[in-house]
Amino acid sequence: MSTLEKTRVIAHVDLDYFFAQCEERENPTYKDKPVVVCVYSARGGESGAVSTANYIARKFGVKSGMPIVLAKRLLKDVEAVFLPVNHELYRRISGEIMSILRGYADGFEQESIDEASLDVTDRVEHDFNRAKALASGIKNEILDKERLTCSIGVAPNKLVAKIGAGFQKPNGLTVVIPEDAKNFLSPLPIGKLYGVGRKTEKTMLELGIKTIGDLAQRRIEDLIKVFGMKLGIYFHDAANGIDESPVHERSILQISRITTLKEDTRDVDEVAEELDRLCEDVHKRVVDGTFRFRSVGIMIVAENMSIHSRTRTLNSHTNDSETLRAVSHELLERFMKGSHLNIRRIGVRVTDLSSASKQKSLSEYG
Ligand code: TTP
Ligand code: MG
Ligand code: MG
């Protein structure tokens, strides 16, 4: 196979400040003002966290995940718009956008409510200039039909394309040709690498690895010693711009439910009772959609707003409610044994779904 035949062309599309941009589109009077979309907790008042904010609000320091109270403080001297999340609206718009994107892809993978990877290798015949023109076309169509802006990264693989999409936000288009992939990544802070969360970032910094380029220079054996075989190899490849994972269709991302407890607690029985209710609800949606799942996860938001998740992959697909309940309980108990924090929110999710009938569209689930 020649180099050309092996080179893939992947476009990663990510909508700009998605939830807030949807709100702006529905309410033109919000334009030019800071817009903050909030997840208010069941406790009432201003309790809760920022889901996302438009770029005007970001200039004041507002960020996803920040307490609403803090965002209000940052914006106290300006006329700002604070809104509760409206998932139904975002899911509907997301569904429309995803169907536009599918029309441009030979292979398609939706990665979250506002982003997708498109394999466009065949239709651009390995040509990155043609891919750039195609990406401009996508941006124009989404702007014309949906009145929304997005950012796109075009690169030889999903990993670099995703980082490329975030490189010139908002309304950006970044093309990274195969020869430049490694140099493109090299100066970026290590936290930008997919798979490097806050904890791993800390470990990397302790090892003197500040940029992706620093990581690329480490010997693979040394990385395996610190991170284990699987992650060590992944970090080595990723830092060098190598990612062979295919763009694959996922019939559905996940079915999940999360709730805020009446009060922060460390009482396993109290949390488990709430967890059972969530499992029942998730199970009902699994059965209604004639799905089977292979992974069960729990999400926990602790009293200090830190977010934790634990996932278990099963040996085979199932739709058994008792399995869902037992595995999520076990994950909860294990988390609580290893942590001294009170729990504020608890959630459960099933992923790796397979579907008997693939009729239902993704946008029906959240
Ligand atoms: P992102 O694509 O990460 O962020 P964004 O679209 O708001 O902004 P950007 O221009 O940087 O892409 O997430 C998509 C949506 O997911 C976001 O609009 C709201 C939601 N979200 C949360 O609810 N909480 C979070 O912590 C993050 C990061 C996103
Ligand atoms: Mg986005
Ligand atoms: Mg996104």
The helicity comes to 40-55%
- Let me know the number of strands: 13
Low-confidence stretches: 357-366
Q: Order of strands across the widest beta sheet?
A: 5-6-1-7-8
Structural class designation: alpha+beta
The first-to-last residue Cα distance is: 42 Å
The whole-number mean of residue pLDDT values reads 92
Largest sheet: 5 strands, mixed
The proportion of residues in beta strands is: 15-25%
Give a short summary of the structure.
With 366 residues, this protein is an alpha+beta fold.
Task: Offer a few descriptive terms.
366 residues, alpha+beta, 5-stranded mixed sheet, 5-stranded antiparallel sheet, 15 helices, 13 strands, 41% helix, globular, disordered C terminus, binds thymidine-5'-triphosphate, binds magnesium ion
Task: Describe the protein in words.
- It is a single chain.
- Helices cover about 40% and strands about 25% of the residues.
- With about 375 residues, it is α+β, with helices and mostly antiparallel strands.
- A hairpin with a 4-residue loop joins strand 10 and strand 11 (about 305-320).
- The chain is globular.
